[in-house]
Amino acid sequence: MVIEKLHDSGIRSEHAYAAAFASIGLSWLAYYTSKHKQGEGTDRADRWSIFVGQWAPTFFGLGNALRSYEK
Fold first, then answer.
1. CB within 8 A of 53, min separation 6: which ones?
2. pLDDT, tens digit, for every residue of 13-34?
3. Of 9, 10, 6, nearest to 59 (Cα)?
4. Where are the domains of the chain?
5. Between 46 and 6, where is the model more confident?
6. Total-model pTM
């Protein structure tokens, strides 16, 4: 039902995969920015990068579900 609605709204598996790879890059960027630019230390940088990094498996899962639906 959710996958069907996503597909009907124009979201394809390629979009989900692109979002997954983008979230990996954003995770690194969040870590670097939090650690080096804000000077808050490693703990805060780790939390931000883990938070953003957890999006990638979700987007990969959505991509797989959408790919299966598209077949």
1. 23, 24, 27
2. 999 999 999 999 999 988 888 8
3. 6
4. 2-70
5. 6
6. 0.81
